[in-house]
Amino acid sequence: MSDSYNFKSIFKNEFNYFIKYKRSLGLKYENEISRLKYIDNILYKLNLKSKIITKEIFYKLIKRNNMQGENYARQYGVTKDFCKYLISNEYKNIYYEDKKFNIINNYKPVIFNNAEIKVLFQTMDNYKEKYIGKKYYQLYYTYSILFRLLYACGLRVSEVIKIYINDINFEENTINIIDSKKHISRLVVFSNSMKKCLEDYIKLFNINEGLVFRNAINKIINRNKLRIFYKGILKQSNLNTNSHIHDLRHCFCNKAFNQMLEKGYDEYVVIVYLYKYMGHKSIHETEYYLHFTDYNKNKIIDANDTFSKSLYEGVI
After folding, report:
1. C-alpha angle 267-271-275 in degrees, rounded to nearest 5
2. N or C: which end of the chain has fewer CB within 10 A?
3. Nearest CA among 21, 18, 62 for reference residue 43
4. What does 12-29 look like in DSSP terms, one character per residue?
5. pTM summary value
6. Hey, CA dihedral for 197, 278, 248, 178, is it positive or negative?
7. Would strands 186-189 and 174-177 be described as parallel, antiparallel, or unpaired?
8. Where residue 24 falls among pLDDT bands split at 50, 70, 90?
9. How many C-beta neighbours within 10 Å does residue 39 have?
10. Tell me, what's the pLDDT at 293?
11. Angle CA 225–208–179, to nearest 5
């Protein structure tokens, strides 16, 4: 079997089969890859001559940089699941423990107000303009548009970086999000302001096919580098550096919800719109953040235009 994720330990084939098995159950199983690669790296360094996982080895695999809380529980869970998978396939001398965790997620997203959002994007524009005529101008221009799309459409980073030109319908102001989290595909809409931004960006850099957003070597954008850029912009903007990129999705949901209530829409109808729009599997997920027709699509566009219009000032 080909080593799809460049695993290198004695269990390299088993890791690939394990991922395939998890996905056959309907799981996306992407965030866990880095945890599996950590396990693989430890096993590789141990230079095992046979496929065994002793109690001592198991403890090495779950102890990662003094992790605590939810991160530790997730590393433990991935390690345990892999060991159980090996045992179910009749591998011998595989040890694991079945510890239970009760993890409470106390994270509270940072919700920026309109003035703070404007400062955030103005800082990105100023940073980009320092590189006009230089090597990384296109990259930072790309970031400035990508982050606007995250905020103005309430998208996930994993969705934005995988948008292709053919996914965008400029006549309908829509983007087709294909096979996203939990294998949900959906249609999202963008405002006329966002349309102008995208059209200018695509025309300036002659992006006629493939990915809309690319890194400096024309490959898919690295999410960790995107996170580092975002943290740097927050610091320069004197904004709350505890914010995560995903908070922009929370900002969108809250602002769209409030704008539509102010326009007189019924609260429960708005939640249903947002639940479908954001690609959630249940309304409860949408409430945590706080198939539509052409008729109500225009309602979302109007609400989007209202709170995002000022974001695009200063974009070349």
Report:
1. 175
2. N
3. 62
4. HHHHHHHHHHHHHTT---
5. 0.63
6. negative
7. antiparallel
8. confident
9. 24
10. 42
11. 60
